[in-house]
Write a structure and sequence with these properties.
single chain, alpha/beta, Rossmann fold, six-stranded parallel β-sheet, 16 helices, 19 strands
Length: 449
């Protein structure tokens, strides 16, 4: 009896009366008594077919009927890009590439798409990246490119989708794509987003990121769905050759007497509660526990508010604004990005120094206009609150200033990456970290390194 393998709404089904299918029992398949089939999650398609073949089970594979797109690329890959692509191929066309921002991860993915020439779905975290990828693919391959997200719902053999759109439609699209690329693949660690990779049967999978590991450990689940890190380089591996040389400068500033008094009082309230509660804040789960307690415990709520007040004081101090003024004067005329963690500070700096501002409140068209003018040199400076850290096509800059941020290594790497594309004049980049001395921000700065 020939068993038929087919795709059904995010699952792979094996038709027929199969009480104990040889070579399949060890796979994560379950018996569906109603339809007399065995089912496996979509992402187990390749494993299931391989098990059937190895066991000599007679079967008909109807999951895919995909055309050869005849794709070719004009890109001339650098040695490390070729090595990354080879490592991915050697791992059965599955795996994650961990490479710095500006190193050409998109170029490698385009090379993989050209080599496979199969219908491909590219999944991205933001609408900005959605448009960026679509332009790139249309230019390189000169074929129609579909778009899911950003107000469109078109599907072509090459399609770019946001994570949100792919999550909503993965079950119906699974058998249309033999290759899936996850840009900023660490986003796939979110519990809901993992379903995208679970439902798709595409045997070829490529993840792209500058920093793969997640503090919550969810990158292990991503590795199971996409593949492990098969090739990685850090900034220092490429600086000076393929990326600009760079220098990190830490600038410590003192709080004013009034700021110091406010900080010490708020921080003291927070630390006192930690001592009494047994929380150390060394793990992300401790912070979540504090937030949960604050809903019913007045002391926990007071401590949480005190932590937020202390953070705002140390990250938005007057001395930081003065330090920024000195840095801007020193680098007058150089393309500069100022990074902050707070929207209020962005608007304060925008008004104080006449800087174009980009926050989560900035509309898409206004943001594109600001970045276009920054790219062409009309603007030489911009200030942003987190929104330029990831998922936005940011023009080259030579100077970066971190006035405030988290202890996230990913955030730091993304911000540094905004400065590292090689400069026409061969000059290096400078990233300043402005840190309030004798505050918790010193530990935050060390963590993100």
């Amino acid at each position: 009896m020939t068993r038929r393998v087919r795709y059904d709404d995010g699952t792979i089904t094996l038709d027929g009366e199969i009480p104990d299918p040889p070579g399949v029992a060890g796979l994560p398949v379950t018996e569906d008594d109603r339809s007399l089939t065995f089912r496996a999650p979509g992402h187990r398609y390749a494993d299931l077919v391989a098990a059937l073949e190895n066991a000599g089970v007679d079967h008909e594979d109807t999951v895919f009927d995909l055309p050869d797109l005849g794709l070719s690329t004009t890109y001339d890959l650098r040695a490390y890009q070729t090595a990354a692509l080879d490592a991915w191929r050697d791992n059965d066309r599955r795996g994650v590439l961990e490479l710095p921002t500006g190193s050409g991860k998109t170029v490698i993915a385009v090379g993989a798409m050209a080599a496979l020439s199969t219908p491909t779905l590219v999944v991205v975290p933001t609408v900005d990246l959605l448009h960026q990828w679509r332009r790139e693919l249309e230019t390189e391959f000169e074929v129609p490119v579909g778009q899911l997200g950003g107000g469109e719902g078109s599907i072509e053999a090459l399609t770019v989708a946001t994570y949100d759109s792919a999550y909503l439609r993965a079950d119906e699209l699974g058998d249309r794509f033999g290759f899936v690329v996850f840009d900023e693949v660490h986003h796939l660690g979110g519990e809901n987003y993992r379903d995208i990779a679970r439902l798709l049967p595409a045997p070829a999978r490529l993840g792209l990121t500058a920093t793969f590991e997640r503090p919550d450990g969810a990158h292990t689940a991503v590795a199971d769905l996409v593949g492990p890190v098969v090739y990685d380089l850090d900034v220092d591996d490429l600086a000076g050759d393929h990326l600009a040389d760079y220098e990190l400068r830490r600038v410590e500033v003192e709080l004013t007497p009034a700021e110091r008094e406010a900080y010490d009082e708020a921080q003291g309230t927070f630390v006192d509660y930690l001592r009494r509660s047994g929380l150390s804040m060394e793990r992300g789960s401790d912070y979540r526990e504090l937030v949960m307690r604050s809903g019913s415990d007045p002391e926990a709520r007071e401590a949480l508010l005190a932590k937020q007040e202390a953070r705002e004081v140390m990250m938005n101090s007057d001395a930081k604004v003065a330090a920024l003024e000195r840095i801007l004067e020193r680098h007058r005329g150089e393309r500069t990005i100022v990074f902050t963690a707070h929207t209020d500070l962005v608007y304060r700096l925008s008004e104080r120094f006449l800087l174009p501002a980009i926050t989560s409140e900035t509309g898409a068209s206004e943001r594109r206009s600001i970045l276009d003018r920054f790219r062409e040199g009309t603007y030489t400076r911009v200030v942003a609150a987190n929104v330029l850290d990831e998922g936005v096509d940011v023009p080259d800059a030579a100077v970066g200033v971190i006035l405030s941020g988290s202890g996230s290594e990913r955030e730091f790497t993304q911000r540094l990456g905004r400065l590292l594309r090689p400069k026409a004049d061969g000059r290096g980049a400078i990233l300043y970290e402005v840190v309030s001395a004798e505050t918790a921000e010193e530990r935050v700065a060390e963590r993100r390194r």
